[in-house]
Amino acid sequence: xxxxxxxxxxxxxxxxxxxxxxxxxxxxxxxxxxxxxxxxxxxxxxxxxxxxxxxxxxxxxxxxxxxxxxxxxxxxxxxxxxxxxxxxxxxxxxxxxxxxxxxxxxxxxxxxxxxxxxxxxxxxxxxxxxxxxxxxxxxxxxxxxxxxxxxxxxxxxxxxxxxxxxxxxxxxxxxxxxxxxxxxxxxxxxxxxxxxxxxxxxxxxxxxxxxxxxxxxxxxxxxxxxxxxxxxxxxxxxxxxxxxxxxxxxxxxxxxxxxxxxxxxxxxxxxxxxxxxxxxxxxxxxxxxxxxxxxxxxxxxxxxxxxxxxxxxxxxxxxxxxxxxxxxxxxxxxxxxxxxxxxxxxxxxxxxxxxxxxxxxxxxxxxxxxxxxxxxxxxxxxxxxxxxxxxxxxxxxxxxxxxxxxxxxxxxxxxxxxxxxxxxxxxx
Length: 428
Ligand code: SF4
Description:
The chain is of the alpha/beta class. The protein has two domains: 204 residues, Rossmann fold (3-Layer(aba) Sandwich); 170 residues, Dimethylsulfoxide Reductase, domain 2 (3-Layer(aba) Sandwich), CATH 3.40.228. The site of iron/sulfur cluster has 13 residues, from helix 1.
């Protein structure tokens, strides 16, 4: 059996042209997927071999585990829900309602990757566009602090560099590609202009670019620490002002280096300035399959994209206070629910230490450090392979992921829905 137009949910590209070949309820081929996508399909189409639910290491019925998890969460004074970047928006919606019912915190993987982008967008808005517009219109593409050849392997071919669109019929020949990074990467060979900058100096460069774009004078000495010359920066400013349609893809090199949200704020302000001269947009290079979706769901339900607290009965947003690492590090959280994420393997040691001290509940599609550590754990079906659901591409376009294989496990949506129902009953 073949399924056309399947969507790979491994990275934020959400490629929707995958052709799956299925034999005996296994995906044997994922045509058009890149190496990362193929590995994702292979790993998640293996026959399930773990119990659907465990409490204290013992296999139990899902209902029993729901009861145990609901009791642990309702007993807690400061529970936190975390993760959610690799699950459906339907599941994320239940998670927000659950955090509200518990009067706890909810945070997602955004707080450790593109949180600074979310904060910059809250401050200055987001002059953005879709990847379809990039494909059809963009003649200047800038990757800043990003290595798409390795992190998003089809980004260049499907959307931004070699793809052919209505106003870019010759694909690569119609585009100028600029890479700004602290070192040469496998993406460098695609660049017409490669600017190697010193680490931690992006804000200064973006601010100087703003000045050049607006026709202000910049002293060469002011760029001495940046690793690039005034001539190089002036050339980039001219490319930006004179393109027909430009796009700046902002990577984690900007969000996770000195300056954080100030880097993104500067990038957004630069793009706003450029729109006085031409059409320009910015798109953050979001990593996980539906990390953009969790920001969307949290924002439409609470007004904020991550790090939200409900303890006063209404949502409050304060990165550094209500974000997972900080709540754990300060030993405030007294129960944790992790969904579609592996905080025990990815957070700093102090935060992980707290995970070992409090009741931990984990919902994931596979065994991980977190599920192994959890008092209550659930195996869930993978969205896009064994469950259906909605995900947002990195450009905020929602797509519906169809189920391809059968599943013995409930979906995240189902587990969280039942947990929410039980918590509401216990709280009534
Ligand atoms: S680029 Fe990303 S979404 Fe596309 S096939 Fe590769 S891993 Fe999947």
